[in-house]
Amino acid sequence: MAEVVHAAGALLWRDAPDHGPEFALIHRPRYDDWSFPKGKVDRGEHVLRAAVREIEEETGIVARLGHRLPTSTYPVGERTKRVDYWAARPVAASAFTPNDEVDEVVWLPAAAAEARLSYGHDVDLLHEFLRGPALTSPLVIVRHASAGEKHAWRDADELRPLDAAGRGEAAVLAGLLHSFGPLRVISSATARCLETVLPYARLTRTPVATDAAFTVGETGPEQAVEALLSLTGVPAIVCTHGEIVSDLITGLCRELGEKVPDDPSLAKAEFWVAHLAGDSLTALERHAP
């Protein structure tokens, strides 16, 4: 089988009042081509971090990820390249410095971007984005990180903390969740859930609210789903328990008229990201730290 090269990138866009959205294209002098920013995922690197890193390295722009776009797969010599893409928007920029890999970055409206792009798979990606909606709101559902064995904990269950592995997972989660920008943080009222989102809350200086609707032993499926649906349109993280995750994803998909994933559950420290636009679910993706 041909070697698969895993890469990550983004269709980076911004609002332009006169002619709709503009898109960032990069020029690579080595190939004399125009494309969207992307690059190889480093060994051990998470694909979300890779996408954000590559955008900044190739354009000088710090971006936050929006909804997931189709993966592009195409041959490169004797290998196959697979590129995971997201829509993304700038949040900060430094002066772009031309270099051997990328010597020019341009912002173009859709028609001009399509005419400039060198590859059909990039044009297909642009068309997919233009089918919209462009702007989405992330709703992240996180299962708490590793918290030891329940049967070995002798005190009140709500006080059971993360173990060493879970603290490491929580630290990694902070950076991954930050890829989607500033998010409101809601947690189950248990130590293990609060500790899972604490590093993200500290990183982004965001307060953490607790909600019994997401707390095991204090809620039921209907109550949990109702609370989740009240957050649609609000960029948010909900940290909860394995017993509740499947009900949340199933209820969200059914309410919005989308197919429920074959396995809506999560392992510890995994998370779903639902990208919402109004009453529609634009994309749903699952990640592990």
Roughly how many Å is the radius of gyration?
Answer: 20 Å
Per DSSP, the total helix count is 7
Weakly predicted, low-confidence segments: none
Biggest beta sheet summary: 7 strands, mixed
N- and C-termini, Cα separation = 28 Å
Give a description of the structure.
This protein has 289 residues and is of the alpha/beta class. The protein is built from seven helices and 13 strands. Strands 1, 2, 3, 4, 5, 6 and 7 form a seven-stranded mixed sheet that branches. Strands 10-9-11-8-12-13 form a six-stranded mixed sheet, with helices on both faces. It is elongated and about 65 Å long.
Keyphrases for this structure?
289 residues; alpha/beta; 7-stranded mixed sheet; 6-stranded mixed sheet; His_PPase_superfam; hydrolase; NUDIX_hydrolase-like_dom_sf; hydrolase activity
Helices and strands in order, then pairings?
Blueprint: E1 4-14, E2 22-28, E3 33-35, E4 38-40, H1 47-59, E5 61-76, E6 79-93, E7 104-109, H2 110-116, H3 120-130, E8 137-143, H4 164-178, E9 184-187, H5 191-204, E10 208-210, H6 221-229, E11 236-240, H7 242-255, E12 271-277, E13 280-287
Parallel strand pairs: 1-6, 8-11, 9-10, 9-11
Antiparallel strand pairs: 1-2, 1-4, 2-3, 2-7, 5-6, 8-12, 12-13
Enzyme class: hydrolase
GO molecular function: hydrolase activity
Keywords: Hydrolase
How would you summarize what this structure contains?
By secondary structure, the protein is an alpha/beta fold.
